[in-house]
């Protein structure tokens, strides 16, 4: 089973909460935005989009400054 190239992960206080994989980056980015709205107010929330093919983290919320 192919899980998809793009993975969105929600963690709270460095513990995994939810994740999903999509083949299309645009769809994965929409899911990231959706999950920010659904889970972003949780204490210690971090949401990341990763390209599983390259291993690159494409974006992280909140932005690590």
Task: Give structural notes.
The protein is α+β, with helices and mostly antiparallel strands. It has one domain (6-61). Helix content is 23%, strand content 42%. It has one helix at residues 25-39; strands at residues 6-12, 15-22, 45-51, 57-61. It has a 4-stranded antiparallel sheet, covered by helices on one side. The longest helix is centred in the middle third of the chain and has 15 residues, at 25-39. The protein is globular and about 30 Å long. The N and C termini lie far apart (37 Å). 14% of the residues are buried.
Write the SSE topology.
Elements: E1 6-12, E2 15-22, H1 25-39, E3 45-51, E4 57-61
Antiparallel strand pairs: 1-2, 1-3, 3-4
Descriptive terms for the model:
65 residues, alpha+beta, 4-stranded antiparallel beta sheet, 1 helix, 23% helix
Task: Provide a short characterization of the protein structure.
The longest helix is centred in the middle third of the chain and has 15 residues. The protein contains 1 helix and 4 strands.
Q: How many distinct helices?
A: 1
Q: End-to-end span in angstroms? A: 37 Å
Order of helices and strands: EEHEE
- Tell me the overall shape: globular
Q: Strand content of the residues, in percent?
A: 35-45%
**What value does the average pLDDT take?**
94
Q: Mind describing the biggest β-sheet?
A: 4 strands, antiparallel
Provide the structure class.
Answer: alpha+beta
Q: What's the gyration radius in Å?
A: 11 Å
Described by its quaternary structure, the protein is: single chain
Numbering strands along the chain, what is their spatial order in the largest sheet?
A: 2-1-3-4
Number of domains: 1
Query: Percent range for helical residues?
Result: 10-25%
Q: How many DSSP E strands?
A: 4
Unreliable sequence segments: none
